Amino acid sequence: MKKRVFPISMTVLWGIVFTTAMHNLTLGICMGLMMGIAFGLFDSGEYDYRFDGAAGDANSFCDSLKSDKRDRVPPFIIRRLSGDERQAALDLAWVVFSEYESPDYSAEGTEEFRKCLHDEDYLHGLQYYGAFDGEKLIGEIAIRPDRKHICFFFVDGRYHRRGIGTRMFQRLLEDYPGETITLNSSPYGLPFYKAIGFAATDEEKTVNGIRFTPMKYVRSSEESGRKCRARSSIF
User: Fold this and answer.
1) pLDDT at site 10
2) In this structure, are 156 and 204 located in the same domain?
3) Tens digits of residue pLDDT in 3-42
4) Are residues 146 and 110 both part of a single domain?
5) How far apart are CA 165 and CA 129, in angstroms?
6) Are residues 51 and 166 in the same domain?
7) Which are the contacts of 116, defined by CB distance < 8 A and separation ≥ 6?
8) Does 230 fall in a domain?
9) Is residue 139 within a helix (H) or strand (E), and if so which, with residue range?
10) Rounded CA gap, 163 and 140, in Å?
11) Which domain holds residue 21?
């Protein structure tokens, strides 16, 4: 049973406000009592806050709401994927590509991308990182370790603009400190890659229907000395 309080200071405050506004002492006192009772019976069903006194209480209330909201943000897990999880990553890549990338490509380009997802020679040796919401894979990066080249970088559309792509990339950088990372950005992914530090190294190209802009990421010496804290690219 939550404790309900009768805030005397709030009653006095509202009494003064209504008395001043209505120029009627009796009516002001009555309205102040009514407001005091209303605040005293306040019970959201989830929070137990007392609006008794200073403005600091209101600030505490807002801070508590913000804190509660942060507590409710799912703790997304970012980690390396096992071989058994590779197919789930490839399936996610196709789903996101079809929705966000394919509209910018010709039929030839879309088919070329589909084929690369089933080409074992192309997929051989890729290292995968994934983001999870519970047990659900919601993002993935695949990098070719020997060339430090990212081949796939996709996040489930329902999770865009939540920092997941950035966090996955930061996790990848932990395994490649000080390295120059390259990728070929799709038109859709270009603004995102520029935002996280990639720079174009050439103009947009088209190969077998695939449109891409070559890019690279070079970590600064200062950044390389720190330990990292923890949308789409093709080819």
Assistant:
1) 54
2) yes
3) 444 455 555 555 555 555 666 666 555 555 565 555 544 4
4) yes
5) 11
6) no
7) 122, 123, 234, 235
8) no
9) strand 136-144
10) 13
11) 8-72
Statement to judge: residues 26 and 113 lie in one domain: no
Regarding pTM above 0.70, the answer is no
pLDDT tens profile 97-127: 999 999 999 999 999 999 999 999 999 999 9
Q: One-letter amino acid identity for 148?
A: K
Mean pLDDT estimate for the chain? 78
Considering only CA atoms, which of 95, 112, 226, 201 is closest in space to residue 154? 95
233 found inside a domain = no
- Residue range 125-153: average pLDDT? 97
Q: Which of 67, 34, 37, 64 is nearest to 49 (CA)?
A: 64
For residues 154 and 93, is the Cβ–Cβ distance under 8 A?
A: yes
In a domain, 234, yes or no: no
pLDDT reported for residue 219: 74
Q: Which two tokens stand for residue 97?
A: 């590509």
Residue 3 lies in a domain: no
Q: What is the pLDDT of residue 8?
A: 56
Claim to verify: residue 53 and residue 119 sit in the same structural domain? no
